[in-house]
Every structure is written in structure tokens, then in C-alpha cells.
Design a protein that fits this description.
alpha/beta, binds adenosine-5'-diphosphate, binds alpha-D-glucopyranose, single chain
Length: about 475
């Protein structure tokens, strides 16, 4: 039995701000439990909902040597769906109403987390064959492992994998100002960890990890180019021998239109009538006109530049004035996008709805009730929202980048193939053209649209395939 530890800053069902939590919450369940003992270790944030915190049981506590002196580390645990989750407790670092704060605090917090993970494993006697680290927040684990535990017999066989979910976020800050990195050698801090005169957690992780993965094949290529590398393309090209792209899946039990309790009516490929009821219920709940013929476009997203909303802003007026569409937005993020969607919701009351906030329930209702799902990302390492929407027969309209390129097959009207609509360039008019095309198929070729909905629902984006690729990668690494 191989022992794998997932280390990440968020994970379903405890704490989620985006797709990382979905991956950390789902992938362990899909790895073969006869071959792999997979556990997860997360920070015990104070903002984890009380209901979930209540279920944790205390394992142990101790004080570890850290640059600030002796620091408290508590370890709690809970088992969910057969997977053991550990939590690192320290209220000095993990307080606040969200997992992330200002970057200068976060770099120190996650350096602490990474050290605490390594200090904790001997206490709980879990000696992993592989520590699978996710994103910059856990990227220093390979660094601390090699720098501080190189001679430690407990970690003698431990290998590390770093998965990059988003190369834009690197964990960068002034080298000498990160207290919890202070005792690393100067050589390490000023060479491997340094990029552009700052400490760069992601770069350090890429250099120290035994294997680096990212969440789609296209993104694995893009991050090696100046356009997609976010300044680290040279590092990624250098690491290309140990870099692989493995596309994400979704938890098909969590997202299942046949059993989803958030929906007004259930539906499936063979029984589609429920979807019409879900559209109607969604329109009612959001104050949209009860117009079954309007094409209802859903958006569930972090409202950030990455997701392409400046394109949407540019074409909103023209789209609303030339097509019978409705738009249902759910998201939080940058003020400028929150305000613009609120503005359009005011101006086009009854046709545009903007929910500024985070709501699992409403997200499910939008995935279930919308006709199309708009995701015109500037870049997208993988993207889960398009996979979820396909599972609910909600046809995605995407830009051909990263994982969107790998998971949405463009509609071909001659062969009647495809699972969505896509455009290539980051250009508002090009996007509008493709929305018009989708609108034309929706309005004038309902039979073709329906067939496409079914193809979306039949497409297999479960974790099964990709979990197999992770298993093979682990076994290759362990030799
Ligand atoms: P990213 O991780 O870049 O935000 P993904 O598409 O990989 O993008 O994953 C986003 C996940 O977060 C999906 O599960 C999506 O449904 C969810 N999500 C995003 N914004 C919200 C929101 N405001 N309310 C509920 N769920 C949201
Ligand atoms: C990141 C990416 C997103 C990806 C998710 C899970 O948040 O932005 O594209 O799907 O991680 O891997």
C-alpha cells in the first residue's frame, strides 16, 4: 500500500474559494484505495463553518521550533467518504473570515503551514511515500523537506509532487521579510527561491519537487511560453522533463442532475423534461421574466480578470439589444465586475440578474436551469465550471485556452458533433459572434441544440480517467 498525502490550502467539503477545493475534495476518493492510502492535510482556519469544525476530533498537539521560537501546532482529524482529513491548528496564523488575506501575511502563513505539515507527520506516524502539494501555498514543502529533513530517516523515501492549479499565483514577497523562511540557507533563499529579486514560492517548489503537474495538457504547454508563463516560462521550460498535464475531472456524485437536491426537478439524458422546470424555477427565483423561449446564459465564477469579464462588459449592451437572451450571474471578486453586473441587472431588470456572493445552492440552480454557460477566460488552467455545466446539459460557450480547449469540443453543424461553442482570440466581437451562432442554433435548430445537450451530458468528465493517470505517475515516480 502506497501512502500519499495531499497538502493544500483548501478542500471540499471544509473550505472552498474555487476549483482547487473541488479537486482536493474529489481526487483522493477516485484513487484506488486498495493500492493507495490517501490522506489530506489542510489548515484549520477559523472560518471553516462551525458545523464542520464540530466534527473534528483532536489527535495531538506539540510545540515546534520555528524562527519565531516555539510555536503551537494542534492536529485534528475527521474521516469523510473514507478519506482521512488532518487539520493543522494555530489560531495566530489561521484566523480571519477567509483563508486568504494580504499577500505579505499569506506568504508567512503558508510557510508556517508547510513547515507544520512536515513537523506533524512523525507525530501522527504517517510517513508518506509521496507528498502531493497543491499550488504555491504548499510549494515550500519540497524545499523544507530537502533543506531540513534531508538526513531524517522518517522522510528517507518521501518524494514530492507539485500540482500547479494557477501559475498566476506564485506567492511572491521580499526575500528578507518572510519570517518563516529566515532560517533557510542564503544559497537557497537567494538562488532557488528567488525570481525577479523576490522570494517566489512557486518557482522554489518547481525546482525542488520531484514531479510537477498542471491541470490540463494545453496549460502544461502554455506555461512554458512567454505569453502564458507569468514570468516563469523559462523555469517551466527548464523543468519540462518532469512536467506533465493531467486534466481535472468533476465529482459526478456531487454534480448529478438526477439526484441534486438544490434543483426544483431532477432530470437526466433520458428524461429531460425536468430541465425546463428548473429553468422556470430559476427565472422565478432570480426575478427574470418567465420566458421559456429566451436563451438563459449562466455565469458562476470568481469575478476576476482571468475569467474574461472585460469582454462580457464590452458586448453586454449589444447582446441585450439584439437577442432574446437572459443572463444569470453568480460571483464575487473585483469591484469593477461586481458593479458592472449590478448595473446591467438594474438597467435590464427582468432580463439580467446579478447575485454578488458565494452560494453552492444557487450555483447548482444556475448549472441546472440555464441553457448556456459563458466562460470566456483570458487563461484557464483547467476550469471545472464548464465540466459541471455540461453534466447538467447546459451548453458551454468558451474561449479556446488551457483546459477549456481540452474539454469542450466545438460544435460542428455538418457532422453534428461537439459539446459547446468556442472562439480563439481574446476579442469581444469574436466572442459576440460565437454567442450569436449559439443563439441561432438555440432559436432556429432546437433539435440540434437538444442533441448537443445530450452529448454534453453523455461526455465523461468524471475523475475516473484522470485518477488513473495520477496513479501511474505516482507509481512511475516511486519506481
Ligand atoms: P477557479 O478555480 O479558477 O475559480 P474553476 O472553474 O476551476 O475556476 O472552479 C470554480 C469552482 O468554484 C466551481 O465549482 C464553481 O461552481 C465554484 N464557484 C465559483 N464562484 C462561485 C460562487 N460565487 N458561488 C458558488 N460557487 C462558485
Ligand atoms: C485553478 C484554475 C482553474 C482550475 C482549478 C482546479 O483555480 O483557475 O482553471 O480548474 O484551479 O484545478
Amino acid at each position: 500500500m502506497r501512502k500519499i498525502l495531499f497538502a493544500a490550502s483548501e478542500g471540499n467539503p471544509f473550505i472552498k474559494t474555487g476549483g482547487l477545493a473541488d479537486v482536493v475534495g474529489a481526487l483522493p476518493k477516485y484513487l484506488d484505495c486498495k493500492k493507495f492510502d490517501v490522506r489530506v492535510i489542510l489548515p484549520k482556519y477559523l472560518c471553516i463553518p462551525e458545523e464542520a469544525r464540530q466534527k473534528l476530533s483532536h489527535v495531538t498537539e506539540f510545540y515546534a521550533d520555528m524562527p519565531r521560537g516555539k510555536e503551537y501546532i494542534g492536529i485534528d482529524k475527521v474521516k469523510v467518504d473514507g478519506i482521512t482529513y488532518y487539520f493543522i491548528d494555530n489560531e495566530h496564523y489561521f484566523a480571519g473570515d477567509s483563508p486568504y488575506h494580504e499577500i505579505f501575511q499569506d506568504v508567512n502563513k503558508f510557510a508556517f503551514y508547510s513547515r507544520a505539515v512536515l513537523a506533524s507527520l512523525p507525530k501522527i506516524k504517517f510517513s508518506p511515500d509521496i507528498i502531493h502539494c497543491h499550488d504555491w501555498q504548499a510549494a515550500l514543502i519540497p524545499v523544507f523537506l530537502k533543506e531540513f529533513y534531508g538526513q531524517d530517516s522518517f522522510y528517507q523515501k518521501t518524494k514530492t509532487v507539485l500540482t500547479i492549479h494557477n501559475q498566476k499565483f506564485q506567492g511572491r514577497w521580499r526575500i528578507d521579510d518572510i519570517e518563516n523562511c529566515r532560517d533557510l540557507s542564503k544559497d537557497c533563499r537567494y538562488k532557488a527561491m528567488e525570481a525577479y529579486h523576490e522570494t517566489n514560492f512557486l518557482k522554489a517548489g518547481v525546482i525542488y519537487a520531484d514531479k510537477v503537474t498542471t491541470v490540463s495538457e494545453t496549460y502544461a504547454q502554455e506555461i512554458q511560453t512567454p505569453a502564458g508563463g507569468e514570468g516563469l516560462d523559462g523555469v517551466m521550460r527548464e523543468a519540462s522533463g518532469k512536467l506533465v498535464g493531467i486534466v481535472n475531472g468533476i465529482d459526478v456524485e456531487e454534480y448529478d442532475p438526477m439526484t441534486d437536491t438544490a434543483l426544483a426537478a431532477s432530470f437526466g439524458v433520458r428524461r429531460m423534461s425536468g430541465k425546463k422546470k428548473d429553468k422556470k424555477a430559476l427565472q422565478r427565483e432570480l426575478g427574470l421574466g418567465q420566458d421559456s423561449s429566451a436563451m438563459l446564459i449562466g455565469i458562476v465564477s470568481r469575478l476576476t480578470e482571468q475569467k474574461g469579464f472585460d469582454l462580457v462588459n464590452r458586448i453586454m449592451e449589444e447582446m441585450m439589444n439584439t437577442m432574446n437572451v437572459q443572463v444569470a450571474v453568480l460571483g464575487t471578486g473585483e469591484d469593477r465586475f461586481q458593479k458592472s453586473f449590478q448595473y446591467f441587472a438594474g438597467k435590464y431588470a427582468g432580463r439580467v440578474s446579478a447575485t454578488i456572493g458565494y452560494s453552492e445552492e444557487r450555483a447548482h440552480k444556475i448549472y441546472g436551469g440555464a441553457d448556456a454557460f459563458l466562460m470566456p477566460s483570458q487563461f484557464e488552467p483547467c476550469g471545472l465550471s464548464q465540466l459541471i455545466s455540461m453534466r447538467y446539459g447546459t451548453v458551454p460557450i468558451v474561449r479556446e485556452t488551457g483546459g477549456l480547449n481540452d474539454t469542450v469540443e466545438a460544435y460542428n453543424e455538418i457532422w453534428q458533433t461537439g459539446t459547446g461553442f468556442s472562439f480563439a482570440n481574446y476579442d469581444a466581437q469574436e466572442m459576440l459572434m460565437i454567442i450569436r451562432y449559439a443563439y441561432d442554433v438555440f432559436m432556429n435548430h432546437p433539435k440540434e441544440w437538444r442533441m448537443m445537450m445530450k452529448r454534453c451530458m453523455n461526455a465523461d468528465h468524471s475523475w475516473q480517467n484522470s485518477a488513473g493517470k495520477y496513479e501511474k505517475m505516482y507509481l512511475d515516480l516511486l519506481g
